Amino acid sequence: MSVHPQVRTLLDRVARSPLPPYHTVSAFVARRIYRDTRAVLAPKAPEVPDVRLLALENYAMRVYRPMANETLPALLYFHGGGWTIGDVDTHDVLCRQLAVGARCVVFSVDYRLAPEHPFPSAVEDCFAATRYVAENAAKLKVSGIAVGGDSAGGNLAATVALLARDAGGPALAFQLLIYPATDQRMNTPSHERNGQGYLLTRDSMNYFRHSYLPNERDWSDWRASPLVAKNHAKVPPALVITAGYDPLVDEGRAYADKLRAAGVKVAYREFADMVHGFILFGGVIDTANAAVAECCAALRAAFDRVPA
Hints:
Order of helices and strands: HHEEEHEHHEHEHHEHEH
CATH superfamily: Alpha/Beta hydrolase fold, catalytic domain
Radius of gyration: 18 Å
CATH topology: Rossmann fold
Shape: globular
Strand order of the largest sheet: 1-2-4-3-5-6-7-8
Strand content: 15-25%
Distance between the termini: 44 Å
CATH class: Alpha Beta
Helix content: 25-40%
Largest sheet: 8 strands, mixed
Structural class: alpha/beta
Number of helices: 10
């Protein structure tokens, strides 16, 4: 299958852009490029009646509450961006969509970024945020917790689910893994097949990995590469979404297979004509909005199974 015509239009637009690739500039500049380019591709932001910032010592969370003063299930959302770029602003529209569509409180975690804060800082912040929400559920008016994220955020969500299992909690209802990075060895065929010409390039991935994981020995640490964890049993049900023209498609599919083989309930959805990052592009790619709707339906179904 060829890339979707709307994706081809986007790729042609990117090819004409005068902006430099991420891997050729500092993280500071790369963050600005990512923030500005994502904004022009996003759909119109849904209205959410209650949006506020929750600031803690090492990280912050932007909290989206679709219905004020009601106890609702919660989604801890970890943004993508190679652990180096991205923030709560680049994923603001998506988090609004998830809050409204899944009828849940979304806690968008602004975790520390590399290279200033390399591995495992992001893992520590995301797990700490998950524990904070669970431990303060009554005060925060939440019941039932899921974790989710895209790309690097999908990596963090998968890792948090494993950490929560090993720590005996918090109990999680679901994990939403959107084209997750699951293996920092980056040696699957799709890394070669899709490593150039489809937005996320091999050079950018090496740049992000070097920023986040400057020590090669950490590439095989399961907290960086959850695919290599020794045991994937007894983690929450998952929806794993991949894109056919994404360098990460093979490791995303492999993670879904690994979870399923361990007895975890998994729904796997590959958007064969899409590229990495597509779920943020609802302003120019219709499939992005359909994918968000699938995420919302999966979250609602998972929350409905949480005991009252």
